[in-house]
Write a structure and sequence with these properties.
With 155 residues, this protein is mainly alpha-helical. It is built from seven helices and no strands.
Amino acid sequence: MSETIPAKRPAIIALLWAYCGAAILVGLIAVAGGILVIAFGEVIDPNEDEEVWYVVGGLVALLGAVGVVLHAIPMFLPRDKTSWTVINGLLIAYLVFWVVCFQPLIAIPAILLSKWSKAEVRAYYGVAIEAEHPGHWKDDWDDGWDDSWDRPRRR
């Protein structure tokens, strides 16, 4: 039985896990806050209709629950190419989620997304690293004419 020794964990993976853990905590606080607003909304402002507090509390609790679920997914994914792709998509979803919920937190998923395609992260997840210019890239551009024909005319 030969087991492959896992690659050293890049710092960006630790940052992803710390970010997801903190976002889950924020989501749980939002769920609790939404429930408290539903329960005690009339104490906050007795002149406001009771239905307003149900709607506001429900939206806060729902967005908190969605945040918890979205940010918990990477914790349970195995290290393979599919997981790398799913987390890449989730990072884009996190950007959208924070645009809807709280804009200042866009920075963290943006940093993670910018570093996610680096070679060390791809190697950690076992994703093949393609060459920047594959060997056949010139063949796609070659129209069959020689180089003197492709150059602009000079007088």
